[in-house]
Amino acid sequence: MLICQIENHDESQILGCCIKQDCKHPRPYCQYCITSLHSDHFQQLKSFKQLNELMLQKMKSYDYLMNIIQQIKTSINTIYEIVNPLYVHPLENVQQLSCSYLNEQIIKLMKIEVAEATAGLIVNIKELNDRIQNICCKFQNLKSIPIKQTNFSDQLYQNKQQGSYFSIESQLEKQNQEMSQNLTILFSSDYKPIQIELENNCKKAINLCIGWKVAVCEPKIPKNNCPITFQFKIINASACDIGVCHRNKIISANYSLDLAKGSAQGIYCINQQGYVYSNLNQNINNKKQSFSFKNNDIISVEVNYQKQRILWTNQISKDQYSMQFDITEDLYPCVGIGYGEIITILNA
Ligand SMILES: [Zn+2]
Ligand SMILES: [Zn+2]
């Protein structure tokens, strides 16, 4: 017989388990637990018979899910095995190659051409990837819920009631905060003003001319369910700006905005001196609302599409600032730098 381990519960028989999603008490309950720990949700206390039914139900979903996951795995493997061998080494020393080797390489190229020409193939697989990444985020959130909620051998049980139990509340809180995903970014060499020079494989931007310019990064920030994070390190700057932008608007403004006049068309950024600029809310433009930062500080930017919120964090001082954004157009990470200023990207 299973008996209740909680002090003062007279070693009563365990009658079943509580299945309230966020119950912070031990799941198994005795007659005393019903009134002392689970009284406000006693409908969610299940007898062993009910638990067996529940288990059968959930295992159906489990089988269904695992079956689909297995199928996806098999399909992806099949595609991988077909595409992977199509790699062609750059042709050097052509004289030393055999005709049959050349023949094989050309056939590979032709196969890639067929893939390109097959309607929707590449677009579809790209879309599939976006969707799978999105789903992956949700499963990652699931993973952060602890399976082992209570440590049964601990003395925790002897402590009475509230607050003393190993709580999953904090874990749920963590889950609500959501795991953010790091986005690997680079400064764009295709979309940049000539005044900005890129070094270190496009991870370092330097403004070589007089005048404030925007350096746009790639890729665009994916509209995932989980927040997306990227970060910059201030190498040498005194009035730089960090944030995100609508690329087209920045290009049409020739990578230069008159922020001091409060014009923040297409940009969401915070300035090193604490001034903020928003494409969405022009009322806050050029107002000192954020934290200031200095050389060697690391500024992370978290873009949360679900909450439509951008969060800046100074990783050194832990200062934070956030603002809302509009989701109508794609966003790209960006920095604004003046003459001589240098910023680098820190990819995780
Ligand atoms: Zn009990
Ligand atoms: Zn409960």
From TrEMBL:
Family annotation (InterPro entries): SPRY_dom (IPR003877)
One matching Pfam family: SPRY
Ranges where the SPRY domain occurs: 230-345
Domain of life where this protein originates: Eukaryota
Name of protein: SPRY domain-containing protein
Organism whose genome encodes this protein: Paramecium octaurelia
